[in-house]
Amino acid sequence: MLSTSRNKALTLLAGLALALGSALALEHGSAPARAPRQPGAGLAASELSRPAIFEGPGGRAALTRWTLRTDPANRGLSLGWQRGGFAGAAVGVPDVIDGSSFTGAAGARNYEGSLAWYRTSFQAPRAGTYALLFQSANFQADVWVDGHRLGSHRGSYLPFELRAALAAGAHRVVVRIDWRDPARQSQSGFHRTWFNWGGLDGEVSVRPIGESELSGPTIQTTLTPDSRTAAQALVRVTVEVHNHGPSRTLTPEGTLVHGEQTIPIAFPAIALEHEQSATASASVSIPQPALWSPTGPNLYQLTLAVGGESSYSARIGLRQLTWHGGRIYLNGGRLQLHGATIQQDALGHGDALTPADERRIVSELRAIGANCARAQHPLDPGLIERLDAAGILVWQGIGPVEGAGNWYSSTSALLRRSRAAGAHGRARRRAAPLDLRLEPRRRGRQQRPQRRRGALRAHDHALAARARPDQAGRRGRVGRPPAGAGGLAVLRSRRRRRDRLLGLV
User: Fold this and answer.
1) 3-state secondary structure string, 39-88?
2) Which pLDDT tens digit goes with each residue over 265-285?
């Protein structure tokens, strides 16, 4: 994803976190497109499956049609399924193996996980290196191409890429998914905050790698003046340039386009050895910029390229975010956030959202007048793009989550308190909608989220119990107050600071 000023759908880390089509013929045909692109030369458009995610390198094609075979007895490896010779059901990816079982005995079995295999094929138009990009797979994914093991990855919501040198012609991709034992996942650092949906729950795409490659672009916007009606925006663009060809000089170029306005971006020439990379940087001045804000989510299309060898495209928003006096300002105006907590989840689909699921999430946020959404893990880039276009910022958690088990399970007494707090929280949730929506504003003042207050109080009670010395005298088996300070006083101070950040005081 485009980083730094990731424009509009703002990622605030650790607290407040705001393509051209490929010349690849797919075995199973095409899927509905979310972001149309021109197909590459040599194949008809009907043979391509265009990526649903707009941002990314040029030349990608989405692998959407797969065959799925479950493997609860873990016999697939011994039967040679990594070579792709297994029958199964036709599914579309993104996909979770069972998106409907989440209650009762069936839900418990689904949560504890199992094993499954996916396979698909694509046609490489020419010999060369090809990249397979997986947006998400839960939990462990092992990947083979034509029976040869390409690599593996652990952890959902974390994109990963694997590459292979392939001959021209047809190639088979096989993925083994293992989502067994959430407790073991937590022990390895992946603490689960939601249901353990197993599957290829993110888009999978393939693209040829040319003699050059562009990746990791960033945007930084400085307004003059810092105002919603700024007369000028100075935009600094950087991009990583990699040379897969012989030693030579490469000159990236690009454009920013909004409506009738086209701004060329001229990068300096870069001398690169074979397989050497460097960061290219350029700045452009944009008069009367169309700024991004929740009330006016204007987007520019950024296109970067190195001749006809490589390209990268994204839709970005120009805006300036600043902090001072303990407040946030967007384009010179104070920014007050109001919205809801969202989860990347849909009934029957788990976390493998369809375009309709993403539209519904955005529609529900807009219906309550939200300008911000909170997510506890990285959201799918396609959903981020829809939130960008709707003028909704994102408060997004990044990285593994600290699991409750690591906080509360020091002693049996603390474990009992933790379970009691959890039961109280479940009773509250049964009496209200799942998401923590803010109440409508009254008389111009944003009301505080009462359900969030209750959840935080329950959490605080558990933390306070952990901070107190064990009343049975078994000191050392529980968390003790910091040396030289009152543990509860420190806890209260941290709690007040957190509540100020959340706008609860």
Assistant:
1) CCCCCCHHHCCCCCCCCEECCEEECCEEEEEECCCCCCCCCCHHHCCCCC
2) 999 999 999 999 999 999 999
